[in-house]
């Protein structure tokens, strides 16, 4: 009997003995892990998969002896794509269920809605989705990409010879905080690279926009100025399908005007006939098609867990995989699930990602990731056509926005600040 | 470490030679094609980066080898693979019996291959563009007219002066007028990229000016600052722009009609349930969604059982969607709505509950993800009318919407059921006195409205996502149309839908989609203040109440 299983049996035995007694915070009962993803409503399309992947990871950890000799117990709640309900459910997880950490949220609105709860009750949130940056909180760990880990390298690729030496840019997005901020950063970046203002077209559409005729024909007209044109798309969720359909119907192929998307992954393409989309691009930190032993293993486990060989894996799933393993390692390092101890212990923790490298938690609570650009294939998968030579460190505050360029985040003592202003020499942002 | 040590130990001339050979393709590009044979070049395709591959592709095209078009075509389609065992370049063909490989050079059949024993030679967008242009140049003399036309178009897109010779040869042999025009246009683009005499360039500008579309504009624009022909180019661009502006108006009208047809399809069922019966049915959008899912289910069944029927899938799905959505509609009316007549607030809440139940039920059965509904071949692609792009799917949806509208008018005006329905909605007690089963007519009327929502779902599945959220995006628009058009009158829904569609599409280019939508809403609010009963006056039960 090795030490792990001994501990586990011991823990199980003491758990049985202690069962009638009151559960103490650091008792021998299971460690609870909150899963805060919408299982109904508009966001269920993206978030249900993340709930499943968390259950898979927790199950596997338990099979390998649990954590600190205790069993992990997932607590799944359904915030139903309703932003205020996210905050309520987060409070319920922390106060009633006494979870040690929460993995959840998709949209930035939902993250902003739960933030005060995590600060007030001092718990941990692992946020797995690419987002607009401009934030670093003590209680949140951002395992998805910041703009410099997705948008900027993608634009660099399109500007390169292999990417087609693009000179004219359409920044198309859904009208909310992520596309607005990302496009602000991109616009500043493009201008810093010498792109003239008249070579940038910015367009916003409402959520769920389905009639793309006018916009696609505008893009077509914009692209006929004799310079290579590309579309950088931060169009969200469901609106992508009719957008790509309209592009195909109006005869715009990826060779004429490539579209690089930051919100379209394997899961989104599953609802689409991809043959007219071949060659359009997406930038992520992970693709299902990446050929590494870690990824093959992950996909095999996912298929076994979900019982369906046709299910795809995607970038936010990898982010949860990384985030969960980082948390496990930090808890083992700290020897406790106490949030304060874990927050201190997790910085510098390094775990393997699925693309053949190791991701590290940085002091600004963002992680290091490779950036991959993939082209859509006929089978709905992506072929990686370009990747950054090394890992990119997530940047909480963009260097291309004048107000945030002077801010840094470092949660190690003695600074312990998410928005330290290097010009004024104090914590507290621009004020 | 070993390599670093080994290099200086090599005999010097050999190292130099290796370096020279390695640099050969880069140094001597123009002659590399002839120097390296076709076979050797093909063998070199799998190696190196995309840029290396680009050079090899150019060299292959330049060999003029008769097999080049086929090999490059296979590369473009992703069927050119390299066998992992011996590095042989093969063309993969998928047959019913499995995957088989052929030697790319000799065409020799190499038998079946296992999935992982070969690797695809990858191309990216830049290479795809190059390949298309190279294949185009190689197939300009093809016996097939369509192939020649496509070839001329890809050569046009590349604008590569290297193709002028091939174009001249093709032009002198061409007998078809349309292909000849395309070839002349392709030649004009290429001429502009050379140092040809000014006269020849002027002629080229004139040819492109006559073509006058976005592609011609893109080809001309870079030459606007050319000192020799700058004036002609600027004038041609201005002319093209002027013509395009005019077409732009027509294009906007078309977009407006198309959006209007979608709005009308979504709203017309509601015009019956809300407009005629006065029931606020918040589950209307979900009935549309059920129609879309019926289409999905029909297509799945066809894919599995009878793939040749695929082009007919929408026609098969349409009556089924009416039955499914209509049946659910009748169930809603009999089960819930009939107990709540005259209590609009309770109806609203109850039907909203039904909409959530239907959404979650579909989510549980079909999953939360989008489902793929394919376009039949006759609904894919687009039609060019002058400078206007009319997509087939939108055109068919417009025709379909008009047919549904006409059929509905006929049912209401000419059929016995329509007569009974009008009688019940205009004067219920009198209709009951005359022996009409008003309960049955209520159920059937509601079912009719729901069935038409299902039909709308079949059409909308072609242009929108088929997901459990499909209905939500249409419910607000539908109510907007019915309220604006005037409840109780089908012509109101007709005028409301097309009016709003066109207004929306004319606002969109200037204000953007977001502000455009807000302005339309503000306009409707103001309009309703002035004419609370909408464009067309109200009739039916709501008046009595």
Describe the model:
The complex is a heterodimer of chains A (431) and B (545). Chain A is of the alpha/beta class. Chain A has 2 domains: 3-145 and 292-372, 3-Layer(aba) Sandwich (Rossmann fold), CATH 3.40.50.2300; 148-290 and 379-402, Rossmann fold (3-Layer(aba) Sandwich), CATH 3.40.50. In chain A, 37% of the residues lie in helices and 19% in strands. Chain A contains 13 helices and 19 strands. Chain A has helices spanning 3-18, 44-63, 83-96, 108-121, 151-159, 177-192, 213-222, 240-249, 266-269, 293-306, 315-334, 339-346, 402-405; strands at residues 31-36, 72-77, 101-104, 125-127, 140-142, 168-174, 200-205, 229-234, 259-261, 281-284, 350-352, 358-360, 368-369, 372-376, 382-387, 392-393, 407-410, 417-421, 426-427. In chain A, strand 18 and strand 19 (426-427) form a beta hairpin. In chain A, helix 3 packs parallel to helix 4 (108-121) and helix 11 packs across helix 12. The radius of gyration of chain A is 22 Å and the shape is globular. Mean pLDDT of chain A is 89; it is low at 10-26. Chain B contains 23 helices and 7 strands. Chain B starts with a helix and ends with a helix. Chain B is mostly helical. In chain B, helix 8 (145-158) runs parallel beside helix 10 (177-192) and helix 10 (177-192) packs across helix 11. Chain B has 3 domains: 2-126, no CATH class; 139-228; 247-544, no CATH class. In chain B, strand 1 and strand 2 (89-95) form a beta hairpin. Chain B is globular.
